[in-house]
C-alpha cells in the first residue's frame, strides 16, 4: 500500500482522510515534524496548500498532500476566504462577524461557496486540485451539526443547511470530498 503523508496534525481531519483515501496508507506529518506548523502566508488557498504539502514532504521525504479551505461570500468580495479560520477569535465569533457584515444584504445576494484546494508534492511532481460547494448564507444559525460556518451555510445540493445535515449528507457534497475525489483521480495517473 502506497504511503501518503497528510499535512495535518488534526486527528479528526486525519481520520476523515484515511476513510476517504482507504487505498493508501495515510500518515500524519506529526510523525515527522514534531508538531511544527508551517507559516501559511499565501494569498490563495492553492499557495497555502502548497506550503503545507512542501513542508510535509521536506519533513518526511514521502509523497505528501496538504489542503487549505474556506468560505467565500460574494457580497463580501470573497471574504473571509483564506482568512476563514482567522476571521475572528473563535468559530462562534467568526459566525457573528459574518452575520454583522451581511446585515442588510438581501437573500438573493447572500451567495457563497466553500472551497477546498489540495496540493500534492512528491519531489518530482506537484499539482493542485479544487473542490467547491455552492450555497448561500442564512440570516441566523440553523442546527448544530458540523462545525465552523456550517450552521450558517445553506447547501444548494442538499436543499438544507449544513447545520442540520448528517455527516454523511455533508460529505457527499462537500468541497473537501470533491477535492479529495479529484486528488484520487490525479494520483491514479502517476
Description of the molecule:
With 190 residues, this protein is an alpha/beta fold. It has a single domain, classed as Alpha-Beta Complex (Maf protein). 33% of the residues lie in helices and 24% in strands. The protein contains 6 helices and 7 strands. The protein has a 7-stranded mixed sheet. The model has no long low-confidence stretch (mean pLDDT 93).
Layout of helices and strands, plus pairs?
Elements: E1 3-6, H1 11-20, E2 25-28, H2 30-33, H3 45-60, E3 64-73, H4 91-101, E4 111-121, E5 126-137, E6 153-155, E7 160-161, H5 167-173, H6 175-188
Parallel strand pairs: 1-2, 1-3
Antiparallel strand pairs: 3-4, 4-5, 5-6, 6-7
The dominant shape is globular
Q: Roughly how much helix do the residues carry, as a percent range?
A: 25-40%
Which strand order does the major sheet show?
Answer: 2-1-3-4-5-6-7
Distance between the ends: 15 Å
Quote the CATH topology. Maf protein
Query: How many strands appear in the DSSP assignment?
Result: 7
Give a quick account of the main beta sheet: strands, pairing sense, barrel closure.
7 strands, mixed
Amino acid at each position: 500500500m502506497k504511503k501518503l503523508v497528510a499535512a495535518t496534525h488534526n486527528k479528526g481531519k486525519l481520520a476523515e482522510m484515511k476513510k476517504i483515501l482507504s487505498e493508501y496508507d495515510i500518515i500524519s506529518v506529526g510523525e515527522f515534524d514534531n508538531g511544527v506548523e508551517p507559516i501559511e502566508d499565501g494569498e490563495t488557498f492553492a499557495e497555502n496548500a502548497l506550503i503545507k504539502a512542501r513542508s510535509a514532504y521536506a519533513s518526511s521525504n514521502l509523497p505528501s498532500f496538504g489542503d487549505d479551505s474556506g468560505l467565500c461570500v460574494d457580497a463580501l468580495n470573497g471574504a473571509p476566504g483564506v482568512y476563514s479560520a482567522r476571521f475572528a477569535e473563535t468559530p462562534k465569533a467568526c459566525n457573528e462577524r459574518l452575520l454583522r457584515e451581511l446585515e442588510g444584504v438581501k437573500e438573493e445576494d447572500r451567495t457563497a461557496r466553500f472551497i477546498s484546494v489540495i496540493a500534492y508534492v512528491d519531489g518530482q511532481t506537484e499539482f493542485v486540485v479544487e473542490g467547491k460547494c455552492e450555497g448561500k448564507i442564512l440570516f441566523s444559525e440553523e442546527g448544530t451539526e458540523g462545525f465552523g460556518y456550517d450552521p450558517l451555510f445553506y447547501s444548494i445540493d442538499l436543499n438544507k443547511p449544513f447545520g442540520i445535515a448528517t455527516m454523511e449528507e455533508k460529505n457527499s457534497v462537500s468541497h473537501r470530498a470533491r477535492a479529495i475525489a479529484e486528488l484520487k483521480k490525479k494520483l491514479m495517473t502517476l
